[in-house]
Amino acid sequence: MPTDATGKVTAARLSRDAYLYVRQSTMSQVLHNAESTARQYDLRGRAVALGWPAGRVHVIDVDQGRSGASATDREGFQHLVAEVSLGRAGIVLGLECSRLARNSADWHRLLEISALNDTLICDEDGLYDPCAVNDRMLLGMKGQISEFELHTLRQRMQGGLLAKAARGDLAMRLPVGLVYDSAGAVVLDPDAEVRAAVDHLHSAFRAAGSAIAVVKTFRAEGLHFPARHLSGPRAGELYWVPLRHDRVLEVLHNPRYSGAYCYGRKRHRTNAGGVVRTTLKPREEWTVLIPDAHPGYVGFAEFETNQAILTSNATARGEDRRAGPPREGVALLQGLAVCGVCGKRMTVRYHHRRDGSPVPDYVCQREGIATATPPCQTICGSGIDAAVADLVATAVSPLAIEASLAVAEELTQRAAEADRIRAVHVERARHAADAARRRYLAVDPTNRLVADALEADWNGKLRDLAESEEDYRRGQGHNGVLTAEQQTRIRALSTDFPALFHDPATSMRERKRLIRHLINDVTLIKAGEHITAHVRFAGGQTDTINVPRPLRAWETHTTPPETLTIIDELLAEHTHDEAVAILNARGLTGGWRTPFTVASLTALCKAHGIPALRERLRAQGMLTVEETARQLGVSTDTVATWRRQGLLTARRVDGRRSHLYHPGQGRPPLHHKTEAADRRADGLLSANQLAAQLGVSSSTVTRWHRLGLITAVPVEHHGVLYPDGQRRPTPAQIIAAGRPLAYRHQQLITGGQLATACTSPVPRSTSGTGSVSSKRSPRTIAAGTSTAPTSSPPTRPRSPPPGRPPARQPQRQGRENVRPARQDTTNASGGTHHRQGRQPEHQQGVQYEGHSFVTRS
Fold first, then answer.
1. Regarding predicted confidence, which is higher, 747 or 770?
2. Rounded Cα gap, residues 385 and 333, in angstroms
3. Rounded Cα distance, 51 and 57, in Å
């Protein structure tokens, strides 16, 4: 090794640490190329020889087994660059520059940082200063050579792989279901259960034509799909998992299951973050494809057919996508409808009726989306679907027997195949349980550590066996094998294809599959009140059908013209409420098939311009009550009164008792106006006349009439009239009539009467008490005792209101202050007036319903 360190190893650089970077590209090199590893560690002696103490020489070897093509996942290299950036490294040592980096970007980044921080680079050939131009150029050339060397090695190995793959001899990882035999040839898996599962997947796709339908089939039959561990301690071991959609696509897209050898199907790219992205190449970019290179589960021709089906099912691919897989929706022409205006495929939308049932709509909106214009056509599919179904059922009826028998045979075969798979699974579980039992019985019982592990394994296998047997028994109950009754039913339906197609047990998916075997596409054109459908059958035959345009929502809820005519005739002589009663009696309904109401009939007439009875009578010249009142020079109330008395003629025009009056009517004759005098001559008075006669108000007269204190005579148009000569009721009669019926004939007094009695003087008795009998509910009425005399001035008595008798003033003794008491007087109508007075102090006591209150004299 040259000793050109003179002038490069300075005191400033020796004051910092030395870093030795050790790396091997693979773990195999680490284990087997020990000499190279030892040579790298020996560079510590070079650092010591250059003057760095051994304790300050740091070895970074955490990147063992990692490639130098990138620094993304190399923690040791990143740590080294960080130490150099922080100015802690005086020298960086490596066996050769390829150990540090095989990427020019990483290598030159390290050189730039080392030059900025005055750090030396040392390898097996010499010592270099990145700040020196010649050393920098030499280091750059070494980095380029190292990167080119990596490319050369990769090309050399890749060329050998491609040559071997072109012959079909390159061994690759096989998918589950294929294995290598002892001679290195690809054969089907000897495990019968694995083969049955793979066969069942392809047969299910062959029957359904959809990957998701295969997943549903496995789930419905309770089947699992095999898989193998790819790495770890259990690498290559078989296990079973529920089938997933992505796993179905992986199996169907893999040509190895068709017996074809392929290489270069995938492209691997590494992004800036070091993450590897894998994508599938198109068929024309595959490196090697050799059909029929080894045994397979399906033929290569069927593999090509499956790829075409999967491509057509991918509804998101391409602008003019073809018919996707049959779905569960009720749109029979899903994927088959073609716009007759622009020639593009029509998509399906759904709207729902009031009962919740979906109705398909075929919409041509691709051009509208692209150009922000309205869709070409929007066609309701309810009528066109039924017409196409009838056409197909009529056209293919001679083939009904063969189609039905094929369906029955397919169902039987699928049920038998699923049953065989479950039986093989049970047999495998039983074999595993027997093997675990033999291992447990062969172990020495005294070796409990081994015996316990074998016993636990045996118990686990027994549980797996029990679960497999339970799945087998459960599957036999729903294995799809046709019973005698079902076979008889199929034979009966086989002679009637329309019944088979319209059978409620036939799902929409199956109906669409039948349609697609017979029809290529249906071109739809909406013109006026009809929809034209040009049906193109698979054999090239075409047919054209015309169906009426389905009614729109507002059209289905439109009242029939016949009903509108009847309504117009009824409103010529009847009001709205009368017309509603007649329509409902005849059983006629509106557009929503509900009975008529006044509000709904009014809205319907307004929408269709049908005039009401008021408008018709006004057009004939009839007058309103206001116009009639102005014409006669009276008030509207007087006009209404004359109409009720039959003095004016009118017609009712609505349910609110509004009327229109015939024109040309005059004021009633004089003898009709003197009707009040005639009634007076007959001895009948109105409420106002009797009130004036008795000196009370008319409301008091009405109240006395309700209490039965005066009599009245009912009279037409006037309610009641009162006979003349009736006397005014006494207060006692009024009070008794106003009491509840149960207390009307008992000797009771009111609270006002009691208060009046309390304010009158009561003579002193020998016992000092007086009593007033009462039958009211017991309660105590206490009169407050007097207080001590005060010097407050006497209160001026208030004058009573006009028409009310003056209240009796209480006698005062001295200047004692007493509490005011209520004094009641009875008015002429039986009511009671209350006023505040003063409690007399000379009363000794009053008995009221068994209780007494005492006042001080």
1. 747
2. 7
3. 11
| Separation of alpha carbons 805 and 139, rounded Å | 134
Gap between the Cα atoms of 179 and 251, Å rounded? 15
d(CA 100, CA 22): 8
Q: pLDDT at position 184, please?
A: 87
Q: Which residues contact 432 (CB under 8 A, 6 or more apart)?
A: 461, 464, 465
Identify which of 319, 390, 320, 333 has the alpha carbon closest to the alpha carbon of residue 523. Answer: 333
Of the candidates 756, 758, 738, 748, the one whose C-alpha atom is nearest the C-alpha of residue 835 is 756
**Whole-Å CA distances, 12 to 83, 88, 89:** 16, 11, 11
**Token reading at 20:** 């030795």
Say how far apart CA 84 and CA 567 lie, in whole Å.
Answer: 100
The DSSP secondary-structure symbol of 345 reads B
Q: How many CA atoms are closer than 13 Å to the CA of 69, on its beta-carbon side?
A: 13
What residues form DSSP beta bridges with 18?
Answer: 57, 91
- Tokens, residue 772: 């007033």
Q: Give the strand pairing for 846-848 and 770-772.
A: parallel
Provide the 10 A C-beta neighbour count for residue 440.
19
* 829-844 pLDDT per residue, tens: 444 444 444 444 333 4
pLDDT tens, position by position, 492-551: 544 566 666 777 777 887 788 778 877 888 999 988 888 999 998 876 778 888 988 887
From CA 759, how far away is CA 808, in angstroms rounded? Answer: 8
Residue pair 238/225 in contact (Cβ under 8 Å)? The answer is: no
Q: Alpha helices, DSSP H only, in 222-360?
A: 245-253, 300-313
The SS3 assignment for 473 reads helix
- Under 8 Å between Cβ of 243 and 214: yes
Q: Which of 851, 847, 854, 855 is nearest to 773 (CA)?
A: 847
CB 50 within 8 A of CB 5: yes
Percent of the chain predicted with pLDDT > 90: 27
d(CA 651, CA 639): 13
Flag the least confident range among 197-206, 541-550, 710-719, 740-749: 740-749
Cβ atoms < 10 Å from Cβ of 63: 23
Q: Helix or strand or coil: residue 318? A: coil
Q: How many residues does the chain have?
A: 857
* DSSP H helix total and E strand total for the chain: 32, 30
**One-letter identity of residue 75:** E
Helical segments of 379-522, H only: 381-395, 400-442, 448-477, 484-494, 497-501, 508-518
Give residue 27's identity as a one-letter amino acid code.
Answer: M
Taking 70 as the threshold, does the pLDDT of residue 638 lie above it? yes
Q: What CA–CA distance (Å, rounded) separates 491 from 262? A: 47
Task: Show the tokens assigned to 604.
Answer: 């319907």
Give dist(CA 261, CA 818) in Å, integer.
Answer: 126
Angle between helix 598-608 and helix 561-570 axes, rounded to 10 deg: 110
CA distance 503 to 400: 14
Tokens for 379?
Answer: 């066609």
CA distance 501 to 519: 15
> Token digits for 459?
């118990």
**Catalytic residue (choose from 25, 404, 494, 829):** 25
366 by DSSP, 3-state: which? helix
Question: In which residue are the tokens 């003898």 written?
Answer: 671
Which amino acid is present at 740? Answer: P
Q: Which residue(s) pair with 684 in the sheet?
A: 723
**pLDDT given for residue 452 in this prediction:** 76
pTM for the full predicted model: 0.45
Residue-averaged pLDDT of the chain: 79
Catalytic residue check, 25? yes
